[in-house]
Amino acid sequence: MSLKQVRSSDAEGSMTGLTRLLQEIETWVSALGHYDNNEFEEALKTFDGISDTSKILFNCGVIHATLGEHDKAVECYQQAIKLDSYLAVAYFQQGVSNFLVGDFEEALVNFNDTLLYLRGNTYINYEQLGLKFKLYSCEVLFNRGLCYIYLQQINTGMGDLTFAAKEKVTPDHDVIDEAIAEEAEVRGHSS
Fold it and tell me: Which pTM does this prediction carry?
């Protein structure tokens, strides 16, 4: 094989790879468009046309969770984590789905893993990875606290809720204060 043939072969391989990447990006954008239009089944079908990556599997998990298919969502999150063990948001969403199906012990494990992979940060912005998601430590602590409360470990759960309240960032996080007040009210009536 001559040097000219090698260069030609490399160029063709690069173009094929570039073409494939462009097709994946177009498919990604199309799938997100379906999701934004609440066309969830169509979004899942469109994502199926792209090779499995942690981002795609995460998005499929979010769609399944939106449809109330939490067992399928958990499977997607687990597959995403196998491809990217540092994807804290996948651990978090897996915990939310496990919580919603009543598996509080597994959800607790998921939230503990989330905190581990937050690596001391108060939040991670996943937009640079193409995911419309910011994960806040206070949300993780809040959800972990709820797990403890549902597992009848009230004091530990309230401790997490208190820590979560100290780390609030957005107005949406005011739900943490409401949960603390509600639990205090319940405790006051049961005394």
Answer: 0.81
